[in-house]
Amino acid sequence: MKQLGRRFDAYQSFLLGCKSYWSGSLYPQLKIESGDLKPEDIDASKSSSVTYQYYAFLERHLQRMKYSGRYGIAPMHEPFRDEFEEWLDQPLPKNLLSLDADCTPPAYFTEIDIHQHPGGTCGDTLAGVIYDRGSRSMWPGRSKDRGLHGRFNAVVKETCEPHNILDLGCGFGKSTQPFTIDFPKAQVTGIDISVPCLKFAAVTANEENIQNIGYRQSRAEETPFPPTSFDLVTSTMLLHEMPPKAIRATAKEAFRLLEAGGYTIHLDYLADDDPFNRFIHYGHGQRNNEPYMRPLNEMDLGSTLRECGFEDIKIMPFEEAPNALSPANDSWRFPWVVVVGRKP
Amino acid sequence: MDERPEQVFFEDGALDRAVGMIMTLAAELYVTRDRLTVLERTLAAKGLLDLAELDDYQPDPESLETDAADRDAFTAALMQNFSGKQSAKGLT
């Protein structure tokens, strides 16, 4: 990975230190002081809790600084723009990457810059490079590293042994590549709407000489594949970026794409019924520019899958890192869940 | 609708912007501190700097005077803000 200079490293390290304090100290303090806050109290400027005002401010602005601050990820890539663009446009083996000029990103994905990533994840030729860099430093617990995907794949393995995997909303390939390692006999296909992310994913796979992988530009709601093409249709951190209508269409499409006995398995976030947990989670969605976090939480995902024809539906808590679900862990964390459905 | 609305977290939005400045300055301070550490290590590794000498440094009388004048100018510019005093004649 290209180094962006000592200033970048020091600045991002500073932000990570602040974020560690935020998740490990400020969040538990807020819970003790103001554990009765609920979703209706999200507007921090109207809250009498000064701790919450700072908690909310820091959640918003540490993320802003990370992407757009003086030594933020976006500006620090600019001096190397030509070099990155040349790297992304290198020739690739046939069938590794298939782009579709007619595939336009849906408005729900382009109207808002998710994660406060300027231009969003498909608005700039370097969006995939920047997204990848952002994912490496986001959370102090390193919960978004390779370990997370390995742990998810272990849950998948307990459910099925897939041979033909479709990874919806694969982004820059962070969830897709681990499938090729944990299921070496499977053919893995990743689809996404973002060309810059898909290029990053394909170039990286080529550099690592991964044979059983292919990327294709497509929406999750409507794919170009024939019926019963896959035995696992999966997604990682996709559903909460989609409005409920798109989630319903995606579930229907997954059912069409699966062969009988195949599984749809999604890794995402659903806060439990505790009002404080929902208050924290919905507030995070608002401050991180993720408007569909709350609608996903408020829709009945189990019923949606059932209406599409899925059976044996399970929604289970997911432990993203060792001891993350332990009562002793009082740090902030995402409310991870695994959602499973089987096509009869 | 503003495409990039400001989210306000404090009762007075002025505080949001002021804390934003504090965080920006703190980050810049950290980057500078890091730079200084790297500079010290690099110079020490090349034998150009004895870190103990840096810690034990005692200025000569002439340097003391220069440093004091620099400190006074810096603190005056900083602290003047608390006095509310203005340099230019003007409107209230």
Describe this structure in words.
The complex is a heterodimer of chains A (344) and B (92). Chain A has 344 residues and is α/β, with parallel strands linked by helices. Chain A has a domain at 146-342: Vaccinia Virus protein VP39 (Rossmann fold, 3-Layer(aba) Sandwich). Chain A is 43% helix and 15% strand. Chain A is built from 13 helices and eight strands. Chain A has helices at 6-34, 50-68, 73-77, 81-88, 107-110, 127-135, 146-159, 176-182, 195-207, 244-257, 275-287, 293-298, 301-308; strands spanning 97-98, 164-168, 187-192, 213-217, 230-236, 258-269, 311-317, 336-342. Chain A has an eight-stranded mixed sheet with strand order 1-4-3-2-5-6-8-7, with helices on both faces. In chain A, helix 8 (176-182) links the parallel strand 2 and strand 3 (187-192). In chain A, helix 1 packs antiparallel against helix 2 (50-68) and helix 6 (127-135) packs across helix 9 (195-207). The longest helix of chain A has 29 residues, at 6-34. Chain A starts with 5 loop residues before the first helix and ends with a strand. Mean pLDDT of chain A is 94; it is low at 140-144. Chain B is an all-alpha fold. Chain B has a domain at 9-58. Chain B is built from three helices and no strands. Chain B has helices at residues 13-45, 51-55, 61-83. The A-B interface holds A 6-7, 10-11, 13-15, 18, 44-46, 53-54, 56-57, 60-62, 65, 69-71, 286-287 and B 7-11, 13, 16, 19-20, 23-24, 26-28, 30-31, 34-35, 38.
